[in-house]
Structure formats: structure tokens, C-alpha cells
Design a protein that fits this description.
single chain, alpha/beta, Rossmann fold, 20% strand, globular
């Protein structure tokens, strides 16, 4: 058993995305998934790190041919319970660092909506991203989600008065980057580090999107909004989620890459 398995055996991811504040991240991610699908007429989709299938099951029910891969057996068990047998979906246990079960150029769209949260070295991040690019068809999209450094610093380190504790544990660099280890579960990143990862793979950045923007700074306010106000909040969010001056302040981001034609 590893730290990730321990965590996801107890954590219910669907609950987070079903909350009103979680719906901002979910609806934003779905919007950009469908933008990519329409752009390329995608039919075959691979989700690596599918967890309990919040995205994979929804896409399969829309008729897309989905392959859902996750490291944690418990997640896959919960995913399978959602299926009635009619969905065009394959469910497999696997690792983002090794997609050798799939050949080159196999999928129209590949999604890494969780694995990059839990990889703690640049080498592993590049490996996971490279594998995702490899199995994607030329001209296809790769979507990778990240957890960002600054919101955690503001809300967790300062907001919960944990600064002294983290300084004593040597978990902050001189330039205020949080230092994580596998036992901490989540690796935090900055926009310039995402760009550096992108330069290591044979794909081009299309856009970097803030999937929740300011939402998680004011969860209680968002959760208490009436329907009309919440829809206005979403309008505001969608108008600002590609603003590059705001991206690094979002708790979650979505990096959208397109595989170069002729890539191996």
C-alpha cells in the first residue's frame, strides 16, 4: 500500500466535484474537454488517473469510446459500480508513468486530470506527460491538470497559521515554493514550471486555463449563492479563466497541449 492508495481508499472525489464550488472546476474542465473534442472530431478518449470516473463515465454516456486507467483499485471499483454495461468504456488498472499497454498514436484525446498532482520529480512529470503524448494521435489534444503553489501558500500556510511549522520542517524555499514529499500527497507547481515541462515533450501549448480561479478562496460564499448568482459567478469565471495574469492564483489549472503532426 502506498500513500496515494491510502488517501483515495478514504477520500471521495465525486463529493468534491459535486459541491457548488467544485462544480466550477468540473464545468470548466468539461467545457475545455468538449472544445477539444469538437476541434478534432475526437471519438477515442484515454483518461489516465480516472479516479472514480467523474469525467470518464460522463463522456462514455455521451457515446465516446473511453479507456479509464487508474492506479488505485478502490477507485476503479467505485467507477465500475456506476456503469450499467451499455457504456463504451474500458476500465484498467495502470500507472501514468508506464502506458506500454497502449500503442503509439492510439487515442484522439488523452487526459491527465489527476496524476500530475502526485508526481514529485521533474523526471516523473516529464515521463507521464511524454507517455500521454506518445499514445495520442498526431494533432490530438493532451489535457493535464495541476495544483498550484501560490493558493496553497496563501490559504494553507498563512491562512491556517502554519508558517512556523512549515519553516521548522524546511518545507518552504527562500522564494516561497512549497516543498512536498510523497507522504504529503500533493505536489505544487508554478506556471513557469508547467511551461518547462511542456518544452520537454513533442507537443505545443494551446492554452493554460484556471479551472477554479478565485472560487476556492471563497468556498462558503460560492456554496451559499442562489442559482442565479452562481450562474453569474460562472459567467465571470469563464470570462477570466484564460487571463494569464490570474492563472497562477488559481488552485487548479488545466494545461492544453496539441501533439505535433508526425510526432512519434
Amino acid at each position: 500500500m502506498n500513500y496515494i492508495e491510502d488517501y483515495y481508499n478514504e477520500y471521495e472525489e465525486d463529493g468534491r466535484l459535486l459541491s457548488r464550488h467544485g462544480q466550477v472546476e468540473y464545468r470548466t474542465t468539461q467545457k475545455y474537454i468538449h472544445d477539444c473534442i469538437r476541434e478534432t472530431n475526437a471519438r477515442t478518449i484515454l483518461e489516465v488517473g480516472a479516479a472514480t470516473g467523474r469525467y470518464s463515465v460522463a463522456l462514455a454516456r455521451e457515446g465516446y469510446e473511453v479507456t479509464a486507467v487508474d492506479l488505485v483499485a478502490h477507485n476503479l471499483e467505485l467507477l465500475r459500480r456506476k456503469l450499467d454495461g451499455s457504456e463504451p468504456i474500458r476500465v484498467l488498472q495502470g500507472n501514468a508513468l508506464d502506458l506500454s499497454a497502449f500503442g503509439d498514436d492510439s487515442f484522439d484525446l488523452t487526459m491527465l486530470l489527476g496524476p500530475m498532482y502526485h508526481l514529485f520529480t521533474k523526471e516523473d512529470k516529464v515521463r507521464a506527460l511524454s507517455e500521454a503524448v506518445r499514445v495520442t494521435k498526431p494533432g490530438g489534444y493532451i489535457l493535464a491538470a495541476y495544483c498550484m503553489n501560490e493558493p496553497t501558500l496563501v490559504q494553507f500556510v498563512f491562512g491556517r497559521n502554519l508558517l512556523r511549522e512549515l519553516l521548522e520542517a524546511h518545507m518552504l524555499t527562500d522564494d516561497w515554493h512549497c516543498i512536498s514529499e510523497p507522504k504529503d500527497l500533493f505536489e505544487l507547481i508554478r506556471t513557469e514550471e508547467i511551461a518547462a515541462l511542456d518544452r520537454e515533450v513533442d507537443a505545443e501549448r494551446v492554452k493554460l486555463v484556471a479551472t477554479d480561479g478565485a472560487t476556492n478562496y471563497m468556498r462558503e460564499v460560492v456554496d451559499a449563492m442562489d442559482d442565479e448568482t452562481f450562474e453569474k459567478w460562472l459567467d465571470y469565471h469563464f470570462c477570466t479563466c484564460e487571463r494569464q495574469d490570474l492563472i497562477g492564483a488559481s488552485h487548479h489549472t488545466l494545461d492544453i497541449l496539441r501533439k505535433k503532426n508526425g510526432s512519434a
